[in-house]
Amino acid sequence: MSEEFDIRLAAFRWLAEREASGRSAFSGRELAEGFLYKNRRITLKGQTGIWFPQGFAMPISITTRLNGPYKLDSFNSDRTWTYAYRGTDPNHRDNRGLREAMRTRTPLIYFTEIYTHYYQTIWPLIIIQDFPDSLCVKAMIEPAYKDLRPGVSMEDMIESPLDVRRYVTVETRRRLHQNAFRELVIHAYDEHCAICNLHHPELLDAAHIIGDTEEEGIPVINNGLSLCKIHHAAYDQNFIGIDQDYLVHVRSDILRERDGPMLRHGLQELDGWNIRTPHKNSEKPDPDRLALRFIEFLSA
User: Pick from 224, 189, 169, 179: which is nearest to 26 by CA?
Assistant: First the structure.
């Protein structure tokens, strides 16, 4: 196995370790700095969408920016991703690199921008089809490379059947969808809890106003609230409610309880409290959704 491939697997492990610690988005600066491999700096992302670390024969990553020029980049109904060539020359070095990755079944990392200079990761991705006339390639998750336990060699990895790859691709996209909602909502609230103002993003959740199983429960910022884990649970259990004027209400039986300081300061004293809201009007909680959700609180 070539050192380039060893480095590629080390990049997957580096991402896996950070995802395991709760990371769901990476800054562009962090990805550009990359990681050290045997005292060598490996960059994961650069100025071009198809990125080759120094000395690499094939790209290690591909990137889609929010307002980028390539409108072809998309997730398809057949559980694949379409990714546009660089420019219009099929024989550009970057595009040849994608074709070589397809020929050798070399896995890549896909970075998708969810807000300015912050990216989610989809990996490991393999190129499965090339369309020079349409200036694009088609890619799919390859779950075999997810098995990165120490001592597992590439020779021990069994090629995943198509139905397994499709299942893992759909599950990956669902997870990314949820993570993107969390990142966007918490970012809109400047990484604070809307109720208690806690400023530790590790302890914050994106709470749905209308649940995602309901018709109005779409994952958009104005259907979300950045809440610490305690107030998220209290909101979901209707211990507290938030009306369309952004006022917090504490359920009457909770107000009558006598317990320790957590109940008193963490819940009871919030009655009548104004929540923190995002700066942008388009990101503020939707009053109609709050009103609908508040009816559920009143009937609890």
Answer: 179
